[in-house]
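Example 3.2
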Amino acid sequence: MQPFNIKTNNLNIHGLKTGCGDEIVIALHGWLDNSSSFVPMLVNAQPEQTWYCVDFAGHGFSSWRSDDAHYYFVDYIDDVYQLINALGVKKVHLVGHSMGAMVAGLFASCFNSYVKSVTFIEGIGCITTPSESVCEQLKSAVLNRSRLKSKKPRIYKSKELIYEARSLTTDLNNELIALLMDRNIKSVSGGFKLTTDPKLKNHSGFRFDEAQCIGAIKDLSAPCQLILGNEGYSFVKQNLAKYVSYYNNLNVIHVDGGHHCHMQSSELCFEHINAFMVQSGAC
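Structure, written as tokens:
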């Protein structure tokens, strides 16, 4: 895979690219991950496809948002829009994992004419806040911003200590943790630190409510499929049960693995994604 860098919205968006075909696939990773999460899967990439695996703003090698900006979910929709236009392509396939799956779905709802197909991996719908909790959500976000401002970035004495910290929140093996986290780490005086923007851990100041999420899903006309890990996150399955009836013929696939099943069952996940793009008449 080759690195790429495209400037959009005063951001340098970095990522990994493979292939040289006319079929363009944009791959969107999960929260606090990066483009390397798609590397195991793309060993099997087809020559007629070109995959752009993106580091979202604040992740991996991509720029952080400015000091006075925060990471609103809806801004990632604009980032994807700017990226597609910068690439100069008219239609793309979207593949998203976790947060990236939610971004892919909302983008496809807003810009149907840009999207040939959408594959969700361990993520569907949106994370919502009940309308009666809007003020509490915003208050929590403001207070959390103040707390984070006073924190100094942690310096780790070795990469292994970062791997160990990540192992506490994932079921990935050590090899896959290292592959994923190496793109989120840089060497500094005294050791290593994360390249991810600390502001990514701020509480969301605003989220859609359930009715808004349903309204967005109903506007999604592109063919969609969802890949679920047999040991994936329960909230994804809960969202599926809540929203499945609002999708137009959503295809659901189960594979072995946890929340990062596309890294654990990479070959099978790629087969399902590629077959779905062909089946939907997109390739």
